[in-house]
Amino acid sequence: MQAWQVHENGEPSEVMRLEEVERPEPGEGQVLLKVRAANINFPDALLCKGQYQVTPPLPFTPGVEICGETEDGRRVIANPTLPRGGLAEYTVADAKSLLPAPDSLDDAEVAALHIGYQTGWFGLHQRAHLQAGETLLVHAAAGGVGSAAVQLGKAAGARVIGVVGGPEKAKVAAELGCDVVIDRRSEDVIAAVKEATGGQGADVIYDPVGGDAYRQSTKVVAFEGRIVVVGFASGAIPTAALNHALVKNYSILGLHWGLYATKNPKLIPHCHQKLTELAASGAIKPLVSERVDLSDAASAVQRVADGVTTGRVVVVPGLNARQQEGAVA
Q: What is the pLDDT of residues 18-37, one digit of tens each?
């Protein structure tokens, strides 16, 4: 079978190689899955660079989130077991962690439902306890993680302010349902948020960016507001000024979604059921901006790493062949 392999750490486009490898053999408690679609996440780029909290042995195959097919034909959501990730034709995953794929979503959408939306749901509901009528500010609102938070915020009845970088992403954020869109490249984020909220600020701030975005968040968080720290896509990890949190009376909430798998695993299928219901009702739908063939995965991971994509980029093995068959037909 074909699989992308990383033999040394570096930029994804430079270190990922598409190779012929043996089909993986599932170990105890694992299942073999045919990869129907693999969503590209920012951690895939960090894995290639050797900068992620998990460091699989070399060589490894990236790809931490897929829509897979079991040997009996069921569509499932899975997080492949590294070092045999999902950017391949086949992979393996723990049987007990498989989740049923919602019928309302196609393969690429299913592949993009799990990590981003679970992170959003846990961040907004389990950690920040977002309430209907509150104002939610989402940084990188047109990205994969941010777009999920926007949809979940709207589904919860919040007023959503989206911060983006550039007019193209501003258009995407508006189409996602943001009530207010702020282009950080052409607008003063702090002034714009204060104007949009009548000086009150945002009740909940969802920050997968860090750096300047976090600094801005501390300036516009409301009284008894909550800043949810999700990640540091900017590459800059801010240092919290706790005296500022004290005098402004706001909370800083960390979110490491992966911890729930060991600390409170029952919440993950509960969350998946909620997401399945929201997807069935049309309240959420993963924003898949691109579907690419397996052969194009390295360039796609690099573009996600560079922050030039909107929504989700999903790898669909065999896509080029199907498109050629369609053109001939």
A: 999 999 999 999 999 999 99
How many alpha carbons lie under 13 Å from residue 214 in its C-beta half-sphere?
A: 24
> Rounded to an integer, what is the distance from CA 302 to the centroid of its chain?
16
CA distance 327 to 194: 52
Given a contact cutoff of 8 angstroms between Cβ atoms, the answer to whether 38 and 114 are in contact is: no
Per-residue tokens: 203: 């009740």
SS3 250: coil
pTM: 0.93
| Neighbouring residues of 51: CB distance < 8 A, sequence distance ≥ 6 | none
Q: What is the pLDDT of residue 12?
A: 98
Upper half-sphere CA count for residue 132 (Cβ side, 13 Å)? 3
Task: Find the length of the chain.
Answer: 329
Q: Which amino acid is at 86?
A: G
pLDDT tens per residue, range 249-284: 999 999 999 899 999 999 999 999 999 999 999 999
